[in-house]
Amino acid sequence: MLDRSKTRPLRLIVNNQPHAVTADPFTPLSEVLRDHLGLTGTKIGCEAGDCGACTVLVDGVQACSCLIPVAQAEDVPVLTIEGEDGDGLIRRLKEAFLAHGAAQCGICTPGMIMAAADCLMKDPQAGRAAIEDALGGVLCRCTGYVKIVEAILDVARGGGLPVQDPEGAFGARIARVDGRPKVEGIDLFGADSAPGDALYLRILRSPHASARFTLGDCRPVLDRVPGLVAILTAKDVPGENSFGIFPTIKDQPVLADGFVRFRGEAVLALAGTREAVEAVRDADLPIEWHPEEAVIGVGMGLAPGAPVLHAKVPDNVLTRGYLECGDVEAGHAAAAVTAEGAFETAFVEHAYIEPEAGFAVRLGDRIEISACTQAPVMDQEEVARVLGIPKAAVRIRPTACGGGFGGKLDVSVQPLLAVAAWQLGRPVRIIYTRPESMASTTKRHPASIRARASADAEGHLLAYEMTGDFNTGAYASWGPTVANRVPIHATGPYKVPHVRNRTRAVYTNETPAGAFRGFGVPQAAIANETLLDDLALQLGLSRWAIRRRNALGHGDRTPSGQVLHASAGLPECLDAVEDAFRTFEAEAEAFNAGATRFRRGAGVACMWYGCGNTSMSNPSTMRIALLPDGRLVFFNGAVDIGQGSTTVLLQIAAEALGLPPAAFESVIGDTDLTEDAGKTSASRQTFVSGNAARLAGLDLRRAILALGNAGPEARLALEGATLLIRDGEASRRVDLAALPRDDEGFVLVGRGTYDPPTTGLDARGQGVPYATYGFAAQVAEVEVDMLLGTVKVRRIVAAHDVGRAVNPTLTEGQIHGGIAQGLGLALMEEFIPGRTENLHDYLIPTVGDMPEITIHLIEDPEPEGPFGAKGVGEPALVATAPAILSAIRHATGARICRVPVLPHRLFEALQAKGARS
Amino acid sequence: MRYDRPTDLAEALAIRAERRVILMAGGTDIYPAFAQRKAWGDASRADILDLSALPGLDAITEDEAGWRIGSMVTWAALADAPLPLLFDGLKEASRHVGGQQVQNRGTLAGNLCTASPAGDGIPNLMALDAGVELSSQAGRRLLPVADFLTGYRQIALRPDEIVTALVVPKGPPARAAFVKLGARHSLVISIAMVAAIVELDAQDRIAAARIAIGACSPVALRLPGLEAALAGERLATAPRRVEAAHLAHLVPISDVRASAEYRREVALHLVRDALARIHQETARRAA
After folding, report:
1. Distance (Å) of CA A605 to CA A19, A66, A801, A808
2. Of chain A residues 835-894, which have a CB less than 8 A from chain B?
3. Residue A2 has what pLDDT?
4. Mean per-residue pLDDT of chain A
5. ipTM confidence
């Protein structure tokens, strides 16, 4: 099977250097660059030309190196992110990307920069249209492309870079502190490094949604294939063969044991050389499949007599969520108007450009896992459980994370790597393919929502009730979180006295649905915002006015009975977008007066989102240490998935301590070196870990001031191993090398722990589930082609109450990226297991799909937050889809109840409307 | 597993005659298919015959009879080539296949040979009345594109043949347009697309029209009824002559991109759009 004779010597010219390699001529250039030449700045996101992450210049023009046989690159100049052009253009692009915040997670950055270089080499003064054309083949999931295009335009105009605040503490637009390696292409993601002797792991996955299987003897395959070391099965899992987010619901096996519950489920793990694991075809392995009836969709899962996925859950209902306040029947009865509707959303794929990857090394009785993740301590707990070893025996060393959005909260590669490395006693690495990543990892829950809203004659909301069924797929993952978070948020950010919200998370034989930016709230917002538009229409009120009239503000009570004492800036958000909404509305009506085929519309929607876990302790601990040599180290257990926590938390710590961010070095996420900061999820890192960072900074500052006998206003500076403490006229120099050291070798340490103050929820869902909430109002302008049913989002104006913006550049970047994902949710994204498991059938927005975006940052400080800050990661996305749907309705009259509004669906809605009228 | 990249056609034809090989031009369709198979546990590949080093296949040449587009001519080369207005539709398609990365490597001939119903080059070649030049050790033959495409991803390429060129015949001066419908701006597989070419007489009336629709049938189809109906029509009013009956022979399917009903309905508008675009462009040039 293995054919060494297929390789041949090839001459390459990469970054102006000649290279001799020996490879199969069919090997994609991307693989040769990475594996033979060590140029891992060229990223691989899909191996199919769909994402552009592997873009390099071949003979001076951009090309996907994953689509080029290395044979075709022979003797042709190839330029990668690690190279330099004669004019310093790539250098200028790198600096501009860094300064503008154009790199978030950084996985698309090398491809973007090379595509931009191609554009500006052809036309150094290229304008926006040419730049967008040139970037059309590179996908970014973080930035919404806005700051990328700004950075390139800056270079094209020969302009200066934005001025950076040298102090750079709280509120300053500093460049992300982990940005340099991202723009240089030297940040190490999950697939970018591994020990040289690491075996490759390849997973055989179920092609069936539901099946039993029997496994024959694998020995003959092992004997036949040189380099194949092991074929691991469920029996090889030394501890518990199960994992899952909740301690009581560990329902997903590491390797399936006799039956599978979704297409993509892991069945066998092949370990060996890369050639060997790829040489074995799935069809060569002794598995006999017996497919069974699969439960597809919540309707089928809930139907009487439906196949049962998990014996402990005979009705397939994993969890129920509930919230009730007031008397909803009385509320409806007292209303002047009532609106109701049924809404459907699809599975949505996170589509981070980095497929899951990493490696594991066994060191005696310990194991170390380096992989991309959003939750190192949860990974640690899962791995310990699966191996049957103490948690302390597991070290998680997160790699750079090429996007997460909730999809890398669950373990994926970690238990598989752990089992293989543990059992084989050799380092093991794995790199998921794009289809494997899409088929096997979690999705946004599809929702089926029925809701009913009532208001009085003035438009004051009186009652809201909803039932939502969320398709949680084959395994629980974060299904309970979605089911519990949605009832609290499902009314939208409005004052409603009478509420009853019910949710269910339902098992099906589909891809597990888990965490995805918003945990079910974006789906619920589509329902409540549409109903609010209904009520406004019925009452003849402006859609903006009905929202302003009901907006939660200071002193208001939420449906869970929580009084918002502070930082409830939705009224201010709405006020900030009012002019835009009126302008868009008036312009649309003027445009439509003369138009037939194309119609424009304006829409508005609001959102709220509780920061942190729902009614659960979710503490974070941060430490800052001063070393005898004057190094100042921030031990920060929060992983940065591109959103910027490494920078933001540092800015907060720096503000609290009184030394500039540049004085620090950071240790991120390593479970041996950092304390538990909790998950990078639930928009909690700025708020929760931010508070921990603030407290750690204050703690260290207290220790320093005590040492220097200085007052609270003292100013600090570090000069080598000398710490300067200036207090008014007095000044003291502390020789750090002379101070006593603790067990870890630190001379001074500050530590901070923060757990947001929340309460449990009672049987009616009443309590204080979150310490604070983010709020936003967004306005959208669309243009609809009435004949084709296509929608172009022209402009979005977004006002977000962020408490206080720690770093406005990063805050804007979150909002841009959230809008892009919200646009995708509204218009194009639909994951269908088995059918859209790649990035050409599953569509996410490209640069040309993005509207012009205006952002208003509303700063209603949160007293509980670090210097007033709260989270923005998820709030960025929630309002966008309903604002777009509102605008489509304004343009066309079609009320959309199912997303994505693919062209054929809008076309059908327009036809149905035409038939009715 | 062999990989041959010959530097002369005779050698390539000899290899082709000798054994079963996959023909590779730009590779932009071969690698995605390979990646999909690999992801589901089959990383095997057939022998490859790489055509990219064959001399002369990357040229576009013109003589009295017409144009010869070598089978290694990329989308980007087509978009940049000095070609008459007849090729405006093909050029438009060239700028919207994949991203620029794919346009710089992928070839028109490869797009034809993949024979996807959604191949953007195919309706254009049909409207251009193009022929496919097939070379083998036995010599060359020319097959009309419509005869070359025999079904869903099926082509009439004999096991010993290689596509060496696409041949576009010369006729009276003509104008062309291409409209593509997809669910996003860039990097998108067409839901449906239309290529239209019209020849105009001195009074700006349509002397001849050639119109083809893709992604609405296993193989793109010409619209002979409409083409006949447009003869003698003024360009300005041509879009109004398009009727559903002219598209009755389409057999669209429902897939992840759109429903069959939708494809059938919007195909009509896309044909009108293509004709309207030719009219607008002609008026713009006249102004």
Report:
1. 56, 41, 14, 23
2. 835-838, 840-841, 843, 845-849
3. 41
4. 97
5. 0.98
